[in-house]
C-alpha cells in the first residue's frame, strides 16, 4: 500500500469503480479505507476494499464489525508492530501484553526493547521478540522503531492497558487523515484542576486553552486543550507519550526516532515524547491528537518515592533547558525575540523551583532541592560545552 493512500483533491474520495454495495472506494486503485457509509445490505465501506477487477469485493458487515474476507483485508491494511520499552519482567507489562492480545485487531508482532545488560525473560503469547539497546527511554524506543517489521508502529510504555478497540481506532485515524504520527487525547497527563493547574499556568509551565493540540511557549512550556478534539483530530506537537502511533518509514526517512541527548542525565528521560513528536512535525510530518482512544496508564500518574525526587528534578531542569535550547531558541531570529525567550525560560524555571520547594516540604525530604541544584549544575556544564 502506498503511504499515505492518495485521495482526489477537492473530494472526500476519488471517483473509481464502485464496490458491489454501490460505494466508491476511499483510495485510488490501492488498498485503503473509504468514507463511512452503510447501505441497505448492511455493507459498511469503512472496511478496506481492494481493486481486484472492475468492481471491489465487499463483505456484509454486522453490528459486530466486518467478517470474512473484509476482516482479513482490514487486518492486512492495519498490520502493525507493538513496540514496548521495558527494563524487567513486571505485572504491569503482563497487563499491557494481555490488552494487546485482546485488541479487535491484535498486533502482527510485539517487540520488547530492553537494556543491553538485561536478559530476556519467558513470556506467554505469540509473535513476541526482544531487542536490546543502550539503557534509556530514548534509545530503547528508537531500537523498537528500527527493529519493527511493520510500516505502522504502536509505541507503548510497559504500564499501558488499552481499551479493546484502541489500536484499531488510532491506526485507522492515522491512515484516514494521511498522518505520520498520532496520539490520544489524554487529559490525565496534564495538571489537574485546582491550585496546581493555576500555578502551572502562572509560571508558564502548562497553560490550558479551550481547543487545539499541544504547542509550546517561548520558554518551553506548553498549551494543552481542555476539551476533546473533533473526530478528525487536531494537529499537535506533543501528547501522551505512553501511546504513540508512528509511520515507521517516515520516521526512519527523516531520522526522527528520538533525541538521545535527553537521557544524558538520567535513563528515564523527560521531555523525550515531546521531542519525538515535535521532530516528526518539524521534518514535515503530520501529527494528530485524536479523540475517543481509551487507555489506562497504570504507573504514569503515581507519586514518586522521596528518594527518586532528586533524580526527577535534576532531569527536569536539565532536560527542559536542553529542550528549550534545541527546539525553542532557534525559532527566535531577532535579538528582541531571543530576549523574550530567555525571560520566558527564567519564568518557567522559577516555577520549577517553587514546585521543588513545595515537594520538599510535603515529602519532608531534601531530595527535591538536591536534584534541583544538580540540574542547574548540569546546565552550567552544558553551557560550558562539557556535555
Describe this structure in words.
The chain has 387 residues and is of the alpha/beta class. It has three domains: 1-66, no CATH class; 80-185 and 228-297, Alpha-Beta Complex (Spore Coat Polysaccharide Biosynthesis Protein SpsA, Chain A); 306-383. Helix content is 35%, strand content 14%. The protein has ten helices and 13 strands. It has helices spanning 68-77, 91-101, 137-147, 166-176, 195-202, 248-253, 272-282, 306-328, 335-363, 367-383; strands at residues 80-85, 109-115, 128-133, 152-157, 160-162, 181-184, 206-209, 215-216, 222-225, 234-235, 243-247, 287-290, 295-297. The strands form three sheets. The protein has an eight-stranded mixed sheet with strand order 3-2-1-4-11-6-12-10, with helices on both faces. A three-stranded mixed sheet has the order 7-9-8. The protein has a two-stranded antiparallel sheet with strand order 5-13. Helix 9 (335-363) packs antiparallel against helix 10 (367-383). The radius of gyration is 23 Å and the shape is globular. The model is unreliable at 1-64 (pLDDT under 50).
Amino acid at each position: 500500500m502506498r503511504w499515505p493512500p492518495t485521495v482526489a483533491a477537492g473530494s472526500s474520495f476519488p471517483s473509481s469503480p464502485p464496490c458491489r454495495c454501490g460505494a466508491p472506494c476511499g483510495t485510488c486503485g490501492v488498498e485503503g479505507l473509504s468514507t463511512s457509509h452503510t447501505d441497505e445490505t448492511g455493507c459498511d465501506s469503512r472496511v478496506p476494499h481492494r481493486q481486484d477487477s472492475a468492481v471491489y469485493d465487499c463483505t456484509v458487515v454486522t453490528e459486530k464489525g466486518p467478517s470474512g474476507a473484509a476482516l482479513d483485508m482490514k487486518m492486512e491494511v492495519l498490520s502493525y508492530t507493538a513496540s514496548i520499552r521495558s527494563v524487567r519482567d513486571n505485572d504491569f507489562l503482563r497487563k499491557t501484553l494481555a490488552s494487546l492480545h485482546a485488541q479487535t485487531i491484535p498486533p502482527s508482532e510485539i517487540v520488547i526493547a530492553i537494556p543491553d545488560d538485561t536478559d530476556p525473560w519467558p513470556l506467554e503469547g505469540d509473535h513476541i521478540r526482544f531487542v536490546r539497546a543502550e539503557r534509556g527511554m530514548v534509545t530503547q524506543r528508537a531500537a523498537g522503531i528500527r527493529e519493527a517489521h511493520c510500516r505502522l508502529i504502536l509505541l507503548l510504555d510497559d504500564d499501558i492497558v488499552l481499551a479493546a478497540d484502541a489500536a484499531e481506532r488510532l491506526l485507522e485515524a492515522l491512515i484516514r487523515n494521511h498522518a505520520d504520527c498520532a496520539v490520544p487525547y489524554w487529559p490525565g497527563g496534564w495538571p489537574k484542576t485546582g491550585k496546581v493547574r493555576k500555578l502551572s499556568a502562572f509560571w508558564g509551565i502548562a497553560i490550558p486553552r479551550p481547543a487545539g493540540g499541544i504547542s509550546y511557549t517561548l520558554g518551553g512550556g506548553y498549551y494543552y486543550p481542555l476539551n476533546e478534539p473533533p473526530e478528525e483530530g487536531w494537529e499537535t506537537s506533543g501528547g501522551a507519550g505512553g501511546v504513540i502511533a508512528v509511520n515507521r518509514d517516515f520516521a526512519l526517512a527523516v531520522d526522527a526516532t528520538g533525541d538521545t541527548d535527553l537521557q544524558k542525565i538520567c535513563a528515564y528521560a523527560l521531555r523525550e515524547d515531546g521531542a519525538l513528536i515535535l521532530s516528526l512535525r518539524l521534518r514535515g510530518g503530520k501529527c494528530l491528537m485524536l479523540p475517543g482512544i481509551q487507555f489506562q496508564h497504570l504507573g504514569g500518574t503515581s507519586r514518586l518515592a522521596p528518594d527518586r525526587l532528586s533524580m526527577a528534578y535534576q532531569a527536569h531542569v536539565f532536560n527542559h533547558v536542553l529542550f528549550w535550547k534545541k527546539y525553542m531558541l532557534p525559532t527566535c531570529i531577532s535579538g528582541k525575540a531571543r530576549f523574550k525567550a530567555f525571560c520566558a525560560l527564567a519564568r518557567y524555571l522559577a516555577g520549577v523551583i517553587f514546585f521543588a520547594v513545595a515537594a520538599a516540604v510535603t515529602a519532608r525530604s531534601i531530595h527535591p532541592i538536591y536534584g534541583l541544584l544538580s540540574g542547574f549544575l548540569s546546565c552550567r556544564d552544558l553551557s560550558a560545552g562539557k556535555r
